[in-house]
Every structure is written in structure tokens, then in C-alpha cells.
């Protein structure tokens, strides 16, 4: 079966879902993979930690404190701004990262049926993603005879991911926090900066890219409009598959000599997630930022994802109906 690879710097973990528990004052946060700015993150897919029971209990206590604070001085507009800011850097719901077909089991009739369903899920979600992008492009056309103002530069995504992948690993090895803040989302930059701070002062990391086994390929491409509709930015997200051979070592900070036994050379397959915001009025795109890494989507993962998306749609429907009454 497929196993998600960890970057050689040892910062990523196998795929885990982000879970945000409902707040008594708002139903917006009940979903998977969406973390509002005021809610502490329990887990994320890549460059993060696994969900622990203590983390879940801590998040529930944080939600209770958040509700008390909102009743004792925080304005609703401030809360909405904080939530909107956090929504700009989420992993978009419905992100499907296909596992290579050769890594699926095919030794039984049930396994083949599961594989066929998996292929159908992949095609269906790809169609939804394509339709969302086509709709946004159509909306950005001044007239039917003019080109869409929304240009997503699809062909530049893979080369950009390749360059950011190298830049990120070099910055991590060099403990370059400024570069991390420039090329990563705020949450990821904060997490990696904390990792850098925990290193031994007597050691220096070295990182080298030996080669890319294959050219990076885009395996997921999504576009979503953040609330409020018409005012919130578009969020463009891409997941890029990168196969590379990397070398990591350690040196003595005082002498500069290599530490014996610390040299590692590995061939890795990574799925790097990029995100950027697009101005809704001018359709001017921002810079690509690294959200993190992610594991392949298993059939079990997708079943959970579909339940989460159905719950989101139900809550949105109830909210719209409540507003009409």
C-alpha cells in the first residue's frame, strides 16, 4: 500500500485531518481541514503533529474560553475579521490527491471494486474542480468577445513549486527565518521557526538536492471564493508531486567538520501544497506560498471528506434559510 514520504529534514508526518470543533456562538467552524484564526490547530497534513487526545481536549477548552471572551468585550466584527483572515490559508475542502494506481491492491474482487470507485471519485472531483475554475473565468470576462481577466498561469505552477521546494529546504537547513516567513503561510512559517529554535546550537544542518527523478506534476488544482462572496479574495490552490533525491548532513558549528553518522541520502516523493490569493475586483494574483505537504487521499480519507463536505453544505443551507425568515 501507499505510504506518504517524509521530507528528509524530518518535519512532515503522515496525512492527518484538521478537525475544528463547533463553537457555541457560531456554526462556521464545524468542519474538517478548516481552522479559523482564533481556534488552535490540532493537526494538519504535513509539517505538523498528529492529533492527540490531549490536543482535542485543549481545543475544546479553548473554544469555551473563546465563547466567554466573545461575550465579554470582543466585537462580532472583530471575530468575523479574524475568521476571514484564517480562512485565507486553509486546505480547501475537496482536495483530492490521487494515489498512483500501481500502489492500490488488486488481489481480490473487492479490491478491484474499491479501485474502480476510487477512480470514479477522482474523476468526479476533478470535474467539479474544473467546473469551478471555468465558472470563475466566465465571471471575469468583461464581454463575451474578450479574454477572461482571471489568469491562473497553470503552466507555471509546477516550476514554481519546484523552486519553492528547494528554497524551503535550504532555508530550513540554514535556519533562515526571514525566508521562511516570505515563502510560507503564517502558520507554517511559525511552526518551522519553532522547529529551528529547538535545534542544538552546537550543530549546523546541511541540505543538498542531488536530482529530481521526474519533472514535478500538478495532481490537484482548485479555486474557491472566500466569504463574503464578492468581497473576499479568490484562493487558488495547487498540489504538486515532487520526486527528488536529497542529502542531509550535520556539521560541528565550531569546527565546521561533518558529524560522523549524520549523513543521509534518500529518494522521496512529496506532495507540496501551494496557495495564493487573487484580488476579486482586479483579478491580480498574489505570490505563491507554501502551505505544507500532504499525503495521498485513500478511499477511507475520501469517505470522511465527503461526509465533512455534506455537513458543510447542510449548515450553509440552514444558515441561508434562517436569513430569509
From TrEMBL:
Q: Does the keyword Mitochondrion apply?
A: yes
Q: What family, per the record? A: Belongs to the mitochondrion-specific ribosomal protein mL45 family.
Q: May I have one GO cellular component term?
A: ribosome
Keyword terms = Mitochondrion, Ribonucleoprotein, Ribosomal protein, Transit peptide
Q: Where is the Tim44-like domain?
A: 140-295
Biological process (GO) annotations held by this record are: protein insertion into mitochondrial inner membrane from matrix
What Pfam families does this protein's entry cite?
MBA1
Enumerate the subcellular locations listed in this protein's record, separating them with semicolons.
Answer: Mitochondrion
Q: What is this protein called?
A: Large ribosomal subunit protein mL45
List the InterPro entries hit by this protein, alphabetically.
Mba1, mtLSU_mL45, NTF2-like_dom_sf, Tim44-like_dom
Give the matching PANTHER family: 39S RIBOSOMAL PROTEIN L45, MITOCHONDRIAL, LARGE RIBOSOMAL SUBUNIT PROTEIN ML45
Q: Does the keyword Kinase apply?
A: no
Q: Which domain of life is it from?
A: Eukaryota
Amino acid at each position: 500500500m501507499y505510504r506518504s514520504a517524509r521530507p528528509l529534514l524530518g518535519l512532515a508526518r503522515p496525512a492527518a485531518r484538521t478537525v475544528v470543533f463547533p463553537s457555541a456562538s457560531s456554526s462556521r467552524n464545524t468542519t474538517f481541514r478548516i481552522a479559523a484564526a482564533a481556534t488552535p490547530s490540532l493537526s494538519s497534513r504535513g509539517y505538523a503533529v498528529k492529533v492527540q487526545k490531549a490536543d482535542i481536549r485543549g481545543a475544546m477548552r479553548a473554544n469555551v474560553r473563546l465563547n466567554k471572551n466573545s461575550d465579554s468585550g470582543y466585537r462580532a466584527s472583530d471575530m468575523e475579521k479574524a475568521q476571514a483572515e484564517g480562512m485565507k490559508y486553509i486546505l480547501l475542502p475537496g482536495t483530492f490527491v490521487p494515489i498512483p494506481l500501481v500502489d492500490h491492491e488488486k488481489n481480490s474482487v473487492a479490491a478491484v471494486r474499491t479501485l474502480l470507485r476510487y477512480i470514479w471519485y477522482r474523476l468526479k472531483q476533478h470535474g467539479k474542480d474544473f467546473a469551478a475554475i471555468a465558472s470563475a473565468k466566465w465571471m471575469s470576462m468583461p464581454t463575451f468577445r474578450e479574454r477572461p481577466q482571471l489568469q491562473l498561469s497553470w503552466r507555471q505552477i509546477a516550476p514554481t513549486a519546484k523552486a519553492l521546494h528547494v528554497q524551503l529546504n535550504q532555508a530550513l537547513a540554514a535556519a533562515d527565518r526571514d525566508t521562511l516567513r516570505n515563502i510560507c503561510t503564517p502558520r507554517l512559517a511559525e511552526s518551522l521557526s519553532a522547529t529551528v529554535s529547538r535545534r542544538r546550537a552546537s550543530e549546523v544542518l546541511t541540505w543538498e538536492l542531488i536530482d529530481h527523478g521526474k519533472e514535478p506534476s500538478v495532481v490537484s488544482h482548485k479555486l474557491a471564493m472566500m466569504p463574503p462572496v464578492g468581497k473576499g479574495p479568490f484562493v487558488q490552490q495547487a498540489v504538486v508531486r515532487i520526486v527528488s533525491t536529497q542529502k542531509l548532513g550535520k556539521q560541528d558549528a565550531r569546527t565546521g567538520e561533518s558529524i560522523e553518522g549524520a549523513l543521509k541520502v534518500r529518494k522521496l516523493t512529496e506532495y507540496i501544497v501551494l496557495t495564493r490569493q487573487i484580488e476579486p475586483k482586479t483579478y491580480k494574483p498574489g505570490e505563491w506560498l507554501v502551505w505544507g505537504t500532504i499525503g495521498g487521499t485513500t478511499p477511507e480519507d475520501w469517505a470522511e471528506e465527503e461526509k465533512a463536505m455534506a455537513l458543510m453544505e447542510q449548515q450553509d443551507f440552514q444558515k441561508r434559510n434562517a436569513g430569509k425568515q
